[in-house]
Amino acid sequence: MKIENKAIETFDFSVKYPNGVLGCDSISMPFAANEVTAIIGPSGCGKSTFLKGMNRLSDEFNCTYQGSVIMKNGTDVMNLDPYELCLLRGNKIGYVMQKPVPFSGKTILQDVSMPLRANMEPDGGNVYDKVKSALEKAALWDEVHDRLNDLSTSLSGGQQQRLCIARAIINAPEILLLDEPCSSLDPKSTQLVENLILELASDHTIMIVTHNMQQAQRVAQRTAFFYEGKLIEYDFTNAIFNNPSDELTGDYIVGKFS
Amino acid sequence: MSDTPESAKISSRNQSMKKRKLEEQVAIGVLFLGGLLAVGIVLAIFSFIFTESLPLVTDPDQRNEMSLYHDTENEEEFARTASVFQTLDNMLGQIMWQPVSEQPLFSLWPLMAGTLKITLVAVVEGTIISFLTALAIAFYLPKRLRYAVKVITELLAGMPTVVLGFLGLIFFATYMQEITGTTFRLNAFLAGTMLSLTVIPIMTTLFEDIYSSYPKEQIHAAKCCGLFDYQIITSIIIPATYGKVFAAGLLGFGRSFGETMIVLMCSGNAAIFNMDFAAGARTFAATIGAEMGEVIVGDTHYSMLFLLGFILIVTTFVINYLSQKLIRKWTYA
Amino acid sequence: MRDYRKGYELAFKIITNATALLVVAIVFFILSIVTIKGFDHLSWEFITAEPTGDMLHGGIWPMIKGTVMLVMMMSILTVPLGTVIAIYLNEVSRKNWFYNIIMSAIRTLAAVPSIVYGLFGFAFFVNIVGGTLDWMIGYEDRVFQERCLLWAAFTMGALTLPTNVISVTEALKLVPNEQRHAGMCLGYTRWEVIKWIVFPQAISGILTGLVLSISRGAGEVAPILFVGVAYFIPHFSGAPLDQFMELGYHIFVMATQSPNVDKAAPVLYATTFVLLVLTFTFNAIGQIVRWIHRRKMSR
Ligand SMILES: Nc1ncnc2c1ncn2[C@@H]1O[C@H](COP(=O)(O)OP(=O)(O)O)[C@@H](O)[C@H]1O
Ligand SMILES: [Mg+2]
User: What pTM value is reported for the model?
Assistant: First the structure.
C-alpha cells in the first residue's frame, strides 16, 4: 500500500517471545500521519504483540526483535538506548491498554499528570492547565472537574479508559497506540471513546487494535488484517470490508472464524 | 522559525533526561548493593554456622578430645591420628550428653529424643486444637463471633515466648503436676503443652485460610445436595485439602522444634534418652541456649553447639522444602 | 432406618465451638493472671526506678530502656535494608536460577530458629566484626569485640531481616504488572516506575514488616542470650557499646535462677505485665498505621 505522508513505518518487523513463539512475523507496514488505522484479526494473531513491539513494551516480556520501526525523523525505535526509549514513550508515542489501568492510590489530578513528572519540566505551574486540556480533549473534563482530588480508581470503567487516554495524550505525542481500548467497556462508553478517537485523529496518528469490525469501519480510514502473526491484507477500510482481495480476510469479515 | 519553542522543549527534555539517567543509575546501583548485601548475609549465616562446627572434623585436638578410647601408652601418637570416626562415635555411639567433664560426652540421641518428645506433644495438641478452632471459625461459630475469635487467637501469636515459659514454670507447672500426677514438676509434656500455644495461632490462621479459600460454589453445590455441614467437611473439604493441612502441620513442627525459651524454662532440661513424656527433656535449641553462655570460644564444646545450630538449619530447610512439595502434590482444590 | 446425621452435626458443632472457646479462654486467662497478679506490685516507682542489687526492690526502668533501645536500633537497621533488598530482588534482578536460590535461602532463614541467630551474632558480629574493628582501629584491649547493645541490635536485625524482606516482597507482588507497564508506557525509567508507582503501593507491606519485626524483636530473648544482655548492670548508660538489661531476659533469669521464687513472683508478674503492654502497644500502633494507610489507598 502506498502512503504519501508516513508517521511511522515498520520493515520486516518480527517480535519473538522467549519461549520461541513468534508473536508477529516480518510485518512491513507504513502508517499514514493523522489518520486512524485499525488492526483486526482473530485473537492470538499478534495484534497486541505488534503494538507492544512498536513502543518496545515487549522488552518487559524479554522479547527479541528483528527488522526495524522507523519514525518520521528517521530514528529506528529498535536501536534506542533505554533512556532515549523513555523519552520516546513519554513524548512521541502514547499507549492505551486493553483494560483501563488507573494508578491505585493516586488522585485523578495526580494520575493524569504522571507523564509530566517524568519530563521534570520547569513550567510546574502549568500542571493544572495541562491536565485540564488533556481531560477536555479526552471528553472527561465535564464529568470530573469537580472531583479532581478523588482517587482515579473510583471512576467507572469508561471514565477510567478516557482517563488513560488523557494520560496518554497529555504530552501531545504524534502517535497513539490503542490496544482494544473498548473491549472492557459498555456500549455507551464505547461510543464516547470512538467519538474521541475521531476527534483526536486530526492531530494524532492513531493505531487501534479491535475485535469489533463495525468499530473498525466507524473509526478507521485504513484497516490491516493479521492472521497468525502475519500481515495478510492492508487497504482502505472500505476496500477491505467490501471487496477483500484475500480469501482469509473475507472469511474473517463474514464471521466464519474469529 | 516556528519550531523554536519545539526545539527548546526537546533540548530541555534531553537536559532533564541527563538528570533522570544519573538518578536512575545511582538508585539502581544502591538497590544492587542491597541485593549484594542480601547474598552476603545469606552466605555469612549459612557458612558461619557451618564453618564454626567444622573443627570437630578437621582439628586433631578436637577429634582427640572427642575420642572415647585413649591409648595411654602411646598418647601423642594417638592424639595425632584420632580419626573422624572417633568424633562420630562420641556423637552417635553412646547416649550421654555431658559436655563438661573429664571425658566430654556429646551424644546427639538424648537431644533428638527430647526434641522429638516436646515437638510431638506441641504439634499434636496444636494441630488438633487449631484444626477444630479453624473449623469453628469457618463453619460453626455464630457469624458475629468469628472475627473476634480470630483476632483473639492472633493475640497469642504476639505473646513473647518468654512470657509463656514463665507462666508455664511458675503457674501451670504446679496445676499440671496435680492433674497428671507426674514425679517431676517440669517435664516434656508441660513444655510441649506450653509450646503448643505458640503453634496454635499460626496453624489456626493457616487452616482458616485453607477453608475460607475453598471455592464457595462447591460448598453451595454440596449444600444443594442436602449435605450437612459436617458431611461437607469430612467428605469434600478434607479430602481436597489434606495436603495443605499436612503441610500446615509440618510448618507448625518447623515453628516449634527450635523454640528455645519455653523449653529452657519448662522442660526440666534433663538430657535423657527415652520417650517418657512425664520425664524431663532437652532439645537442640535449649541446649544451645543453656550452654553457649559458658563455653570457651574455639573449644570442642563450642564447635559442638554450632553443629547443633547447623542441624537446626538443615532441619528447617528440609521441613520447608517438604511442605512446599506436599502442598503441590496433594492439592486438588 | 434412623438418620443420625443431625446428631453428628450437633456433635461437630459442640466440639469445634468448645475448642474455639478453650483457645479464647486460655488467652483471657493468661492475660488476666498477668494483669491481676502483676497489678499489685505495679507502681510509678516500679516503672521509673533503677533496680536494687537483689532485684526484689526498686524498679525496672533500665530494662524498659534497654528493650526500647534494642527494638529501635534493630528497626533502623533492618527496615530500610529489608525494603531495599526486597525491591532489588523483586523489581530489578532477573528472575533466574540465582534469584530462586536466594529467595529460597531467605525463606529458609525466615524460618530458622531464633537461637541460631544468637550463635551467628556471637560468632560473626561480636568476634569477627568486633575483632576486626578493634584490630583496624588498633585498640589494645577489646572495645568492639565485646557483648554489647550494638551487636545485640545487629543480631536482632539479622533475625528480622528475612521476615522483613518477605513481607515487603509479598506487598510488591500484589502490585499488578499492568501498573508497571502503564508506567513504562508513560516514559518512566525503571527507577521512576519503582519510585512513583510501585513503592507508594507497597508502603503498607513495608509497615507490616515493621510491625512484625518490632513485635518480634520486643519479645525474643533467645538470640540475645549471649550477645550482650546482662542480668544486672548497676548503671545502665544506654551507650551502644555497653551491655544492657532487657525485660524478657530479666523475666527469664529471675524465674529460673532466683533463690526464692515466691518472693520474686510479684516482681516477675509485674515485669511480665509491662512487657506485654509494650509488645501489644508496638503491635497496635503498627496495625493502626497500616489500617490508616489502607483506608487512604481505597477511599
Ligand atoms: N507473554 C507471552 N509469552 C509468550 N507468548 C505470548 C505472550 N503473550 C502472547 N504470546 C503469544 O503471542 C501470540 C500473539 O499474542 P497477542 O499479540 O496477545 O495476540 P492478540 O492480541 O492478537 O490476541 C499468541 O500466540 C500468544 O500465545
Ligand atoms: Mg490482545
Answer: 0.89
